[in-house]
Design goal:
Pfam families: HTH_1, LysR_substrate. By secondary structure, the protein is of the alpha/beta class. 39% of the residues lie in helices and 21% in strands.
């Protein structure tokens, strides 16, 4: 039994077909079939049933596969550790952080690391929605903080960090803020919703949009907040960015159908297939330790 045979089994199960596994692994389909058959011969039982178009795990195969995935995970972690031990200080580390995530804890952490790693340029980018993930998958960013929306978990390692709360708000004099009764979606379509654009190349703002409503799109939450403070629209804001305005009563929560105050779990993430350098690993360790 070899590590490569287990990788082949994992690929067949995840891709659904021998052909898909071969394409995923960049191998000939005959080689994939041969490696699986060799593994089954060694084990003495079938792992996959070939009776249907898509191979399906046999009862024994399901049990074996559960244990195999743990072995694969352990082997990959061991490989990553070995690569990290053989790495050197990076010239640059880029962190891409969702614009909804509070920066002060991260800035404090980076500030303590700068004297420790003076030869490494630590860059911090502020991105919206799909922006952090796009930077991570392209290899531009080593570490990101964002939600798990559209994240391919087979390629990305993630650990939870402090959640934030998205709160629909408007100026206290905004028409929809008068009274505490529930505002329907149809009613809110007549008011301008201020949204922050996606900073990824897709540039498709699709989260939290009121269908069929009036809309202004801005590039950041600072601009959005200014528009809300000028009583020119409504929209969702991270609660920590408007804490003072909420306490003073300048901005007030809205009671909108389908737009309740929503806790949003954020995660620190990095790619599984890219070994972390010494500095990136140190940053990762300290963020996850918090």
């Amino acid at each position: 039994m070899t590590f490569e045979q287990l990788v082949v089994l994992e690929a067949i199960v995840s891709q659904g077909t021998f052909r898909g596994a071969a394409e995923h692994l960049h191998k000939a389909q005959s080689a994939v079939s041969h490696m699986l058959k060799k593994l089954e011969d060694e084990l003495g039982f079938e792992l996959l049933s070939r009776e249907e178009y898509r191979p399906k795990l046999t009862p024994s195969g399901e049990i074996f596969y559960r244990h195999a995935t743990r072995v694969l995970r352990g082997m990959r972690e061991l490989k990553s550790i070995a690569q990290n031990l053989n790495s050197h200080h990076e010239a640059e580390v880029l962190l891409s952080v969702s614009s909804t995530y509070p920066l002060p804890p991260l800035l404090k952490l980076i500030g303590t690391m700068t004297p420790e790693f003076p030869a490494t340029h630590i860059r911090l980018a502020r991105d919206n929605m799909g922006g952090p993930l796009e930077r991570l998958l392209s290899g531009e960013a080593q570490i990101i903080i964002s939600t798990l929306h559209d994240v391919p978990m087979e390629r990305v390692e993630a650990a939870p960090v402090a959640p934030i709360v998205m709160l629909p708000v408007a100026h206290r004099d905004f028409p929809a803020a008068q009274g505490n009764h529930l505002r329907t979606t149809a009613e809110m379509q007549g008011y301008v919703q201020v949204v922050v654009s996606d900073s990824s190349q897709s540039n498709e703002q699709s989260r939290g949009l009121l269908p069929g409503g009036l809309r202004w799109t801005v590039s950041d939450f600072a601009t959005k907040k200014e528009i809300l403070m000028e009583n020119m629209g409504w929209g969702g804001m991270p609660d920590y960015l408007i804490r003072k305005e909420l306490e003073e009563g300048t901005l007030v929560p809205l009671n909108v159908e389908g737009y309740a105050a929503t806790p949003v779990q954020q995660y620190v993430m990095r790619r599984r297939d890219k070994p972390a350098g010494i500095v990136a690993q140190a940053i990762w360790n300290r963020i996850t330790a918090q």
